[in-house]
Amino acid sequence: MSAAELKNPPQNQASGASDMAHIVLTFDNNKLASALYGQFDENLARLEQKLGVDIRSRGNQLAIKGSASAAEQARRALDTLYGILQKGVDIGQSDVDGAVRMAIAADDQLTLPTMERKGKVSAAQIATRKRTIYARSLNQDAYMRALERSE
User: Fold this and answer.
1) What is the per-residue pLDDT for 122?
2) Which residue intervals of the chain are DSSP H helices?
């Protein structure tokens, strides 16, 4: 995994519901991990609120607990956000919301323009002089990829 190392794959917990998963992510760069979490862990709280998971941070490790599908969506969203941070771009609340939408969309269907397999999230991007613009929804992703093909 490029952005984070999956220490424990999603697994069923013996105590509790049978569809609960526990995922542990370890990030290579502590500075980027801190930026990923947000000030006072606001980005993690946003993910918890949007996806209904429980995320605990300890240094450069995150533990995600929740239903198997929600935990996997949270992992994909965090992987996407960490990849953006690795490129030197700061993230905000709108980026977190966009990553959540893309992770949920990856669960719902194949991405139309590239026909990537379900679960693979790689948002389209357009580089301008001032900054790089990332797709924040499935429709934006399709539109940006169509622009790339037509140029």
Assistant:
1) 64
2) 30-37, 42-51, 68-86, 93-108, 138-150
User: CA–CA separation, 16 vs 124, rounded Å?
Assistant: 38
CATH code, 135: 3.30.1370.10
Half-sphere CA count of 94, side-chain side, radius 13 A = 5
Domain housing 132: 4-150
pLDDT band, very low/low/confident/very high, at 104 (cuts 50, 70, 90): confident
Give the 3-state secondary structure of residue 135. Answer: coil
Give CA separation, 136 vs 7, 59, 143, in Å. Answer: 28, 28, 11
Question: What's the number of domains the chain is made of?
Answer: 1
